[in-house]
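Predict the holo structure. Ligand: 2-oxoglutaric acid.
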Amino acid sequence: MSLNRSKSCDKKIKTIELKLLKIVNKIESLKLNNNYISRLDVQTNKKRFHFKFLEGKSKLFLWVSSIIILSALLGFWWFQLDTIKGCLLEIPSSSKALFRPPEDCSMCMGVDDVVRLANITDREFEEQYAYGTVPVIVTDATMDWKAIDHFNFDFFANFYRSNKMGRRINDCFYFAYKSGLNSLNEVFNMDQRRANLSGEPWYVGWSTCYDEETRKLREYYKRPYFLPRTSESDMVDWIFMGGPGQGAHMHVDSVRHMSWQAQVRGRKRWQLAPPPECLYRCRALAFTVLPGEILVVDTNRWYHMTSVLPGDISITIGAEYD
Ligand SMILES: O=C(O)CCC(=O)C(=O)O
């Protein structure tokens, strides 16, 4: 048995020798130099991975792409660092709610309804409500405001179409909601039927942001008498305007301070919801703000949505106070 095996081995070796000899003869006939032969790949049964792409132009391509990828990674890392250090980029306010710290539910526990009051001193208001989380409606703070008689769609259309304001019409904060009106320019150029609330419904909001604009509008309303004497307001006011059935979707704000909002015309329904982490410990609230009333609510902490009630156009004016 072992004799047979060694015979068959000898035979195989002989065949291999013959094959090798043939190869050597072939190489010699090709007149290849030794240097070239020594660089030939050794064949094995396993497939070898050839780093062909590391040669010539491909090598250059690899280097360039590595440098680009590395620079992109370094750039991203630097950007992150700088954002953390210096707030290079503000997170859009719409996404800020996702990153807000969890609320202490004592802000809403036991708050069952809005508080309606009148004839309150600034000191009482400051002590009890100005910086608290109980929503308050003050019913007697707009009695001597010219806005109550003057503010309507045409007033704002004339105000913003006038040469002075017209040039700056698209520069400031503007919320289109579902109106499809993409700028104040579009709002004040909509057809008369729609403006009169007989066409497609609409609701929009915007802020003033030019001192001259704010100053001119403030000729029609005053700083609410009940605000703490030491509190200040920026030269930015907010206006929301639109027809029945329309309003702002449920959201929470990320503004700097507390704010008030005066219902100059129309009636608006507010729905407040506690922050999601307090849903089982606090109640949702709903109330209506009537013409001439001023609502004070911490919109940074209460989620809120609004809906204009049937009847007149709703126009509100408001501002933050510190
Ligand atoms: O008055 C409205 O309809 C919306 C107000 C609002 O969402 C806000 O002040 O954050």
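The radius of gyration is 38 Å. The mean pLDDT is 82.
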